[in-house]
Amino acid sequence: MEDKLKELEKRIGYKFQDFSLLKHALMHSSYTNEKHLPKYQCNERLEFLGDAVLEVTISDYVFREYPGYNEGRLTKLRSSLVCEYTLAICARDVELGKYLLLSRGEDATGGRERDSILSDAFEALIGAIYLDGGMDRARTFIHTHLLKDVEDKSLFYDAKTILQEMVQAG
Asked: H or E segment at 129?
């Protein structure tokens, strides 16, 4: 397992000081349930933290990079960048799915390719990098793996936003 995780470190361009944080970021709740581990050992707490780090990093980025955008356009752009679909694309770019710790059942039913699992793990990875290396390292990771092609990623809005816009347009 350790060799596999070192391979992931190379893929993401970040070497963990505390290797247990990387393993923790990859531990899905189905795995902890199957192994009868305490619930807090799954990656959900790291996902919570990573989501907050991602939100502030993306907000700062779009605020600075798009000075002509009003609050509505900034919010829309940020939403497109932090939506499940976009984060799953980023997770696939680094092949995060192949490193996930899943239960046998979750693995057998395609969990490694499920957008929700991949996006959550990507956020957990951000949280782990933040705890291990601080905000600057987390920001660098986000800029490298999420913001490298903002214009393409910003085209993907979640279905709810599109539907709301269509309804409001009348």
From this structure: helix 115-133
Report the alpha-carbon distance of residue 55 to residue 70 in Å, rounded. Answer: 18
C-alpha dihedral, 9 to 15 to 20 to 22, nearest 10°: -40
pTM over 0.70: yes
* Rounded (5°) CA angle 76-119-123: 90
Catalytic residues: 51, 123
120 CB-near residues (< 8 Å, 6+ apart):
43, 44, 47
What is the spatial distance between Cα 51 and Cα 79, in angstroms, rounded to a whole number? Answer: 12
37/160 Cα distance (integer angstroms)? 36
Length of the chain equals 170
* Residue 61, both tokens: 């980025």
- In whole angstroms, give the CA distance from residue 129 to residue 144: 13
Question: Using CA atoms, how far apart are residues 90 and 81, in angstroms rounded to an integer?
Answer: 10
Encode pLDDT of 83-134 as tens digits.
999 999 999 999 999 999 999 999 999 999 999 999 999 999 999 999 999 9
